[in-house]
Structure formats: C-alpha cells, structure tokens
Design brief:
- This protein has a single domain, classed as 60s Ribosomal Protein L30, Chain: A, CATH 3.30.1330.
- Helix content is 29%, strand content 27%.
- It is built from four helices and seven strands, in the order E-E-E-H-E-H-H-E-E-E-H.
- It is globular, with a radius of gyration of 17 Å.
Length: 146
C-alpha cells in the first residue's frame, strides 16, 4: 500500500466555465499546487495496472460550531455534509493522474470517507488489486448476483 497525504481543506471537482474565449477550469491552479505536494512525496513510477484507492477526507471544523457540536464532530457522531463526496473523490483522482496513476480509469475500486478534523487533509491509500482483496475480500461481488 502506498499512502499519500495532501495538507489543506479537501476540495470538490468543479466543472469548467465555458465562455467566448474557451473553457477555464477554476481548479487548475489548485490542482497544480496539489500535484507539487504529491511529487515531493511520491518518487516512484506511474502505476499502469488497475488499482483500488481509498480516500479519507478530513474536513475542517466550522468556526461557528458550538462546543457540543465540536465534541460530536471529534467523536464521529456528526459527519460532514457540506461537500458532495463524489465530486471530492473525482477531483482527488484527477490530481493523481500523471504522477501516481496513468489515468483515473485505472481505479476500479475504493472507499471514500469523510470526517471532521482539526487538521484538514486528504489521506490517499493506493492498493494493488491483490492487496485490496487481501484487506477487504474478493472484489467480484457482482458475479454472485448474475
């Protein structure tokens, strides 16, 4: 397993703006900053085989949260709902491309979770399919349903 940590508030993917001069993606500068962080952590080859990736998003605790809510957030009784977890995963897979994985279509499985934390970050755990199956069990669960 390969583990990478991206410091800072996790962000969701956003569609590019399309205007008369073409398309502009507001996340491109941020994506490049994150990729610079990844390059400092990962010096290996680009993975070209299928992989499974777990994303653990540690979201910042809102400044307006009461003491009671903060306690609930730290004990995982209250989970974040401010961002669409699917779009956060999509953006994270996008910035892994070309540095860790060849293409995000090589990601065939993985889990995504979201927690509150006093240390906002994204924890990325990259597994080979064999490692993932050892950890979580067989991936081909649909074969039983067909």
């Amino acid at each position: 397993m390969l583990q990478l940590i991206i410091r800072g508030k996790p962000l969701p993917w956003r569609a590019p703006y399309v205007g008369t001069r073409g398309a502009y993606s507001p996340r491109t500068p941020i994506k490049h900053q994150i990729q610079d962080q990844l390059k400092l952590q990962y010096k290996g080859f680009i993975l070209t085989d299928y992989v499974a990736i777990d994303f653990i998003f540690h979201m910042p605790i809102p400044k307006t949260a009461t003491k009671k809510k903060k306690q609930m957030m730290f004990s995982d009784q209250l989970r974040p709902v401010s961002c669409d977890i699917t779009n956060m995963r999509k953006f994270a897979e996008d910035y892994l491309q070309g540095i860790v994985i060849l293409n995000d279509k090589m990601v065939v499985d993985g889990r995504t979770t979201e927690y509150y934390s006093s240390d906002p970050k994204t924890v990325i755990q990259v597994y080979s399919i064999e490692e993932y199956e050892k950890r979580y069990g067989q991936l081909n669960v649909l074969e039983d349903l067909v």
